[in-house]
Design goal:
The complex is a heterodimer of chains A (about 300) and B (about 200).
Chain A lengths: L2 E7 L5 E8 L5 H11 L8 E4 L21 E8 L3 E3 H20 L18 H23 L7 E3 L1 H21 L10 H28 L28 H17 L2 H28 L16
Parallel strand pairs in A: 1-4
Antiparallel strand pairs in A: 1-2, 3-4, 5-6
Helix pairs in contact in A: 2-3, 2-4, 3-5, 4-7, 5-6, 6-7
Chain B lengths: L4 H9 L4 H32 L5 H4 L1 H11 L4 H11 L3 H22 L5 H33 L16 H40 L1
Helix pairs in contact in B: 2-4, 2-6, 4-5, 5-6, 5-7, 6-7, 7-8
Classes of the chains: A alpha+beta (about 300), B mainly alpha (about 200).
Keywords (chain A): Acetylation, Endoplasmic reticulum, Fatty acid biosynthesis, Fatty acid metabolism, Lipid biosynthesis, Lipid metabolism, Membrane, NADP, Oxidoreductase, Phosphoprotein, Transmembrane, Transmembrane helix
Membrane topology (chain A): Multi-pass membrane protein
Organism (chain A): Gasterosteus aculeatus aculeatus (three-spined stickleback)
Chain lengths: ~300, ~200
């Protein structure tokens, strides 16, 4: 007993494709592959297939016979535009800050006055800052390759330009001042730098612990969603109070870096990042609440009890 | 794209609510009145003094008040008045002419949608005039900004931050190149839409 599938354009309602003899237990993902054959320019990751022209996208895992359709299913198609993999975007956007900062640190020609070319700063905090900044982005690159389990394979291509402008732009702006020949070290000297370093390292470990905990919620290759809980690792106990402690720790790390360098552009970067992460955290918190009846009520999205 | 009578009627219902419309009308009436006050004040001050000197100070207070109101609508106009003319005396005269002419025309058109055909057609000339007025004003202010280091911060300082207002103004001028065509063509599209509706209504009658 086969089903038939017709795919219409969501905007014009034109009939784009008719598939007869589709197995009832076929998934949306398989239907996307079939559609791709008749329209080679629309590879599966750029297809959005819906039951309703203006409705939500169906998931690749959804099975045809479990959907509210008759023997001939009518789906609506929207082109999501050129796609790029999350991994590619992350690697590119993080490579930039790593490389650019080092160029400023080594005072590559044409950045500062020629007499400073390839000199090094006389302030030891500048060397420490370079190590911290580089460590942060190497950590991010390694996590992208070995730790994170992404829900989505791809995102719109234009995101890579937007994201790289943000990360690369801010990295260059910060690095310019920290590695400048006229850089002024922190007012409270060693005390301030030591406190900042402790905060920074604490939050790097914390952020990494959360990433590992989130990874372990999800078996390899799966896209399941579960409520995260504190584990034996004390850095994860913050899950008691916060839905997205990875962002909480990330904020803490950049506050540490701001304190360490006493640099206004770093403070701006921290602020903008905090605003963006708060938006993400609130969204994530909301979907947790929607999906899980028994979601712990004590948790806030990003800052315990506050936000 | 064909529109039936039903479509036009449906679109009519979707417009801004009563409260929003009232706010817009009052806002635009107040703005028109305000700018008229300033224009009248200018003329009177000029007549009294017989020259352009000190003209700015005579309307500074109401000017500042209505500028802040205009911030809601057109950010670039506020930037121009506050940042450039507030500090750069030589440029104020030139600014006043371009600026107020455009603003008065603009706001008086906003008071009634019936004036839309006029408004959307006049802008063809007013936009380029306004933009060239702004660009000329900024350009004239550049030497003064460079000489005095206005709004600029240099290294070293304890915040490890610097800002070059002169460079920023040049960047602002350059940004007009991509921005102005976008704004202009957006207005053209809006005009087609709005005046297109007017034609539909008259056809239906």
């Amino acid at each position: 007993m086969f089903s038939a599938v017709e795919i219409l354009d969501a905007k014009t309602k034109d009939k784009l494709c008719f598939l007869d003899k589709v197995e009832p237990n076929a998934t949306i993902g398989e239907i996307k592959s079939m559609f791709h054959k008749s329209h080679p320019q629309w590879y599966p990751t750029r297809q959005s297939i819906r039951l309703d022209a203006k409705g939500k996208s169906l998931k690749d895992e959804d099975v045809l016979q479990h959907l509210p359709v008759g023997t001939t299913a009518t789906f609506y198609f929207r082109d999501l535009g050129a796609q790029i993999s999350w991994v590619t975007v992350f690697l590119t956007e993080y490579m930039g800050p790593l490389v650019l900062y080092l160029m400023f640190y080594f005072r590559v020609p044409f950045i500062y006055a020629a007499k400073y070319d390839f000199t090094t700063s006389k302030h030891w905090v500048v060397h420490l800052a370079c190590m911290c900044h580089s460590f942060h982005f190497v950590k991010r690159l390694l996590e992208t390759l070995f730790v994170h389990r992404f829900s989505h394979g791809t995102m719109p291509l234009r995101n890579i330009f937007k994201n790289c402008t943000y990360y690369w732009g801010f990295a260059a702006w910060m690095a310019y001042y920290i590695n400048h020949p006229l850089y002024t070290p922190p007012i409270y000297g060693e005390q301030q730098i030591r406190l900042a370093l402790v905060l920074f390292l604490f939050c790097q470990i914390g952020n990494f612990s959360i990433h590992i905990a989130l990874r372990n919620l999800r078996p390899p290759g799966s896209k399941t969603r579960k409520i995260p809980y504190p584990t034996k690792n004390p850095f994860t106990w913050i899950f008691l109070l916060v839905s997205c402690p990875n962002y909480t720790y990330e904020l803490g790390a950049w506050l540490g870096f701001t304190l360490m360098t006493q640099c206004l552009p770093v403070a701006f970067f921290t602020l903008v990042g905090f605003i963006q992460m708060t938006v993400w955290a609130k969204g994530k918190h909301r979907s947790y609440l929607k999906e899980f009846r028994d979601y712990p009520p004590l948790r806030s999205p990003i800052l315990p009890f506050i936000l | 794209m064909k529109t039936t009578h039903g479509d036009v009627a449906a679109r009519k219902k979707k417009g801004p609510g009563a409260l929003a419309t009232a706010y817009l009308v009052i806002y635009n009436v107040v703005m028109t009145a305000g700018w008229l006050v300033i224009a009248v004040g200018l003329v009177r001050a000029y007549l009294a003094r017989g020259s352009y000197h000190g003209l700015y100070y005579s309307i500074e207070k109401p000017l500042k008040f209505f500028q802040t109101g205009a911030l809601l609508e057109v950010l670039s106009r506020v930037f121009l008045t506050w940042a450039v003319t507030h500090s750069v005396r030589e440029v104020r005269r030139r600014l006043l002419f371009y600026f107020h002419f455009e603003i008065i025309i603009g706001y008086s058109f906003n008071t009634s949608s019936w004036l839309n055909p006029l408004r959307y057609t006049f802008f063809f000339a007013l936009y380029p005039m306004g933009v060239s007025g702004e660009l000329l004003t900024i350009y004239a202010a550049l030497p003064h900004v460079q000489k005095t280091g206005l709004y600029s911060v240099t290294l070293p300082n304890k915040y490890n931050f610097s800002f070059d207002y002169h460079g920023f103004l040049i960047l602002a001028m350059v940004s007009y190149i991509p921005l102005f065509p976008q704004l202009y063509f957006h207005m053209i599209r809006q005009r087609k839409k709005v005046l297109g509706h007017v034609e539909d209504y008259s056809k239906v009658e």
